Amino acid sequence: MGVLLLLLGIAFSYATLPAFAATDPASPPPYTAEIETQVEELFNNAMEATNTGDFAAAEQYWTDALELLPQNPAIWSNRGNAKVSQGHFAAALADYDRSVELAPDQPDAYLNRGTVQEGLMNWEAAIADYNKVLELNPKDAAAYNNRGNAKAGQGNWEAAIPDYQKAITLLPQFAFAQGNYALALYQTGEQDEAIRSMRNLIRKYPQFADMRAALTAALWKQGQIGEAESNWVAAIGLDSRYKDTTWLVDIRRWPPTLIADLENFLSLAGQKRSES
C-alpha cells in the first residue's frame, strides 16, 4: 500500500460501501438508486486502480464519488488513503479529519490518520489515534502493531514489545507484527530470541526480505558468516533498498543496533570483496 507500508506492518483500512446514512441533516443531498449505482461503480473503479498502483486515478474516483455523496465518511477516508500512497500526507490528513468529524465512532479513519502521523513522525498524535481505535475496537491487531511502531519511533522499544505481542495474539498469522517483534527484541538485548524469531519467519515466508536482511546483520555480528552472506544475497535479490542505510533509518525505521550491525557487515563485506 504505497509509501507507508514500507514501515513493515502499518495498515490502511479501506471502509466499505455503502455507508450512505451519514448525511448532513441541515442540507441532505438528494439520494436515489441511480446515485447509489454510480457511487458503487466509482468505488469498484477506485479499488481496481488501487490494486494496480494507479493511486492518482483512485483519488480522482473518490473525488468524483464525493461530488455525489459529500457527507460520506468512508469516501473521505478512502480518498485519504489514495493521497497517502502518493506521498501527499498533509492533504490526506485533511480527508481523515473530515471522515472522523462525520463518523467519530468509526475506527477506520483514526487508524488511517495514525499512519499519516507516523509518516510525519508525529508520534504522540499517532499513538492518540491508535488509542482511539483500540477504545472503539479492542481487538484491532493492526492498531496494536502500528502503536508499537509509533512507540519504537520514539525510541521506546521496550514499550513497543507488548503491543507487538498483543497484535500477534489477536492475529497469529500477522507476519509483519512478528517481524517487528523480532526487531524490537534485538534492540532490547534479546538477540538470541530475535534470531530464532527471524529464522522461524523465514521458514514460513522465504521471500520476507526484511527478515532476511535483519538476519544477515544479526548472524554477521555473531560470526556466522556463511549463513549471513546467503541471506544477504536473497534479501537484496528481493528488495535492493536494504543496501541503503538511509532508507533503513528514515523510511523502514529499523532499530539503531541492527542498523549499526548491518553497516558493519556492508563495510567488512565490501572490504573483503576488494581484497579478493
Break the fold down into its secondary structure elements and pairings:
Elements: H1 33-51, H2 55-68, H3 73-85, H4 89-102, H5 107-119, H6 123-136, H7 141-153, H8 157-170, H9 175-187, H10 191-204, H11 209-221, H12 225-238, H13 245-252, H14 256-275
Helix pairs in contact: 1-2, 2-3, 3-4, 3-5, 4-5, 5-6, 5-7, 6-7, 7-8, 7-9, 8-9, 9-10, 10-11, 11-12, 11-14
Question: How would you explain this protein's 3D organization?
Answer:
By secondary structure, the protein is mostly helical. The protein is 71% helix and 0% strand. The chain has 14 helices and no strands. The protein has helices at residues 33-51, 55-68, 73-85, 89-102, 107-119, 123-136, 141-153, 157-170, 175-187, 191-204, 209-221, 225-238, 245-252, 256-275. The longest helix is centred in the C-terminal third of the chain and has 20 residues, at 256-275. The protein is elongated and about 70 Å long. The protein starts with 32 loop residues before the first helix and ends with a helix. Residues 1-10 and 17-26 have low confidence and may be disordered.
